[in-house]
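Predict both folds.
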Amino acid sequence: MDIAIMGAGLSGLACAITLEKNGITPKIFEKRSKVGDRFINGEVFLDIFSRPVHDCIADLADAHGIFLKPTATIQKMKLISKNEQATIKGHLGFISIRGREQDSLESQLAQQSKATIHYNSKKTYEQLLSEYTHVVMATGDGDYAKKTNNFREDLSVSIKGATIEGTFDPISVMAWIDYDLAPYGYCFLIPFSETEANISLAIPNIPKNVDVKISQLWELFYAKIRSQLKQEFPITDEFQISQYPIGICLSPRIGNTFYVGNCFGTLMPFMGFGQYASILSGVFAAYDLCGLGKYEELMKPIRQSYDDSLILRRTMEQLSNDGLDRAIRALQGYWGEKLFQTKTINPLKVASYLLRPYIKLQKWRT
């Protein structure tokens, strides 16, 4: 069995690590010059989106032998709408770094793998398929899945972000869900440390946003956080992504090709999270290759989470700032902490189930 992994991101490296633990050494082909050769940004593992698992980092270590060191645990999250705020406290998840940073998740995973990585690779999927018995498609987006007619694109998003300097609480994250700042989208502040943080703004490319200019929204958001937090926040690095596709593969495996990570569809439509699912997809593909399970079956919970998240995304596109204010107001205090701390229900699944009739009604009306 000769296995080629196309991409040295989270899912590709997790697949390689798992294969090696089971006596199989794959070869990895990466088009960039090194692991993590991309913009730096902060991302979060939020426990509320990983139910029934309540601690993603512990689960990856204990159940799958994948060891990650987040920059911090999240002990406080502030949600801000146009006229309301809610502060949730408790163990909510973890903060991590992605990209060109020595402690990024990509770098941590690369240190756990001994597989040969061919950098600056020009190899195409078709070439790898002819040279290897199996190909794990871990390219970080759905382009190749679309080329093989195996990808359902549900929406696309545009994102602008920056690294800023200032004074931050390293265990606290902030999210703005205010359509004056990001119509039908959201903004984040995620600290890397006490002195650096990532800020980002994301909007869906939907008909309602056809005339929206993300550069103008960015100026509003940047001014808002400087005023609200009373700091200047000088920018040291920036990035922008346009029309990034969000969708899911029709089949996680076709023949001897396994689609993993964002190439499969692990980026959740609701708020853009997907690190945990991406890593799991690589692990599950390796399990199948090692005869330890069927990839299609192992991926069913991740597919269900994607579908649930899509329902929340469609609901978000029907709300106004008044509706967001009501939602944030409801999360303040006891009920918000109860929702985020619950261990007996899956909030994403329950919310999706309750909102499905509403989404169908909206489609009927339009």
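Second protein follows, with its predicted structure tokens after the sequence.
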Amino acid sequence: MNDLQIEKKAIRTNVLNARDAMPPDQRARESMKMCEAIITSTPYLRAKSVLAYASFGSEFDTSFLLGHALTDKKILIMPRVDKEMQQLQLHRVHHMDELVAGQWGIREPQIDAEIVMPNMIDFILVPGVAFDRAGFRIGYGKGFYDKLLLAVNPASTRLSAAFDGQIIDAVPNEVHDQRVDIIITPTQKILISHDRKNH
């Protein structure tokens, strides 16, 4: 583990500890605020296809957003962890009952669900532990989303939602780290302008 990875790990631990300590009622209230901000945003409203994930642990609760995407007749796409390939496989979801507990207990599509290619997605909800105002993020350390974001349509919108305590001054980054375009918190919308070619 190099110095940058050690620094990322320390940030991840500190931010997760703070997020885990949030009162459940505050987490629920702020999650709904963020979901409402997402579903009224222009990139979401324009999108035909939406890639989003089922939240777990102390993450912001995505369940309202997932249900709303289906009600809105969006093409809802969700990731499944492919253990052999060590990457995310994307599948279309027609109903939340189709999801099963996958690796780490996170709800995901079944292996035989319809596969969707990354370049077919208009809007991507990107998870993360910590973010900075330049759009850099620290994930859970597996690199799944960095790999995925390299393969998606460059014109797609990459949005993350995070509690205010997840926004830090600067995320240590490497050349392979992928940035997001918008970060929504319960109190603000952070718009990031950057060149896709320059991570």
